[in-house]
Amino acid sequence: MSEQVSFGYEEVDPQEKTRRVGAVFSNVAAKYDVMNDAMSGGMHRLWKDRFVRRVKPQPGEAILDMAGGTGDIAFRLAARGAEVTVADINQEMLDVGVERAMERGLDTLVWSRQNAETLTYPARTFDAYTIAFGIRNVTHIDRALAEAHRVLRHGGRFYCLEFSTTEWPGFKELYDVYSHKLVPRIGKAIAGDEDSYRYLIESIRRFPDMKTFEGMIRTAGFSNTRVEPIMGGLVAIHSGWKV
User: Fold this and answer.
1) In Å, how far are 66, 85, 88, 89, 228 from 116, measured between CA atoms?
2) pLDDT tens for the 243 residues of the chain, in order
């Protein structure tokens, strides 16, 4: 039997997942940031601020922001003086980011279409690697983590912001109802796309829990791994170092 990977609650061929995830983000690119505000009540902005504070970008250091299409993390990193390369597998998402950068008069960012599993950069190119709300959409997460390790310099750091499973009693049940019942409806109302947002919620449910994902980061070669839960683990900041 051929390899199967998860696409939401479905099991599909790896190539099919890559194609379908691409279609999801092509569909939602134009309304992606508006939907983030609607779905999180604007809290995603606070999570991203906190994430970048943990990364501690330094003036002049090279950072790869993977799956960073619309620029949300890259703009924050660049404001601290970092030299940021924004990479994303989806050209529509990159196009939105470039347009937003132009509106801000920000011309220091490098934009590149890349597959997280097969980056085209030489080994030991970057001082830091960031990925926010993108790793769960990668077809083979272990390959993406191995590539992150490869392109980092010794002493480089890996930071990932991703949804997880909240451990707060009571809140988990409320969030399950909200995400499964309401988020697809919000997607239909704002972005005209119910199915894409149903997939995005299902992809959160299928993502490994915090402890399991931390183990995957260690398996990829990272040391001093750490998990910082937010809202009981609804969102988590994962980090590790290449030593």
Assistant:
1) 7, 13, 8, 7, 23
2) 568 887 777 788 888 888 887 877 777 677 777 767 777 778 889 999 999 999 999 999 999 999 998 899 999 999 999 999 999 999 999 999 999 999 999 999 999 999 999 999 999 999 999 999 999 989 999 999 999 999 999 999 999 999 888 888 887 778 777 777 777 787 787 777 788 778 777 888 888 999 999 999 999 999 999 999 999 888 999 999 999
Instruction: Say how far apart CA 162 and CA 220 lie, in whole Å.
Output: 17
Nearest to 160 by CA among 169, 148, 147: 148
Find the helix packing angle between 32-40 and 183-191, rounded to 10°.
140
**What's the token pair of residue 95?**
């196009």
Distance CA 97, CA 115 (A): 17
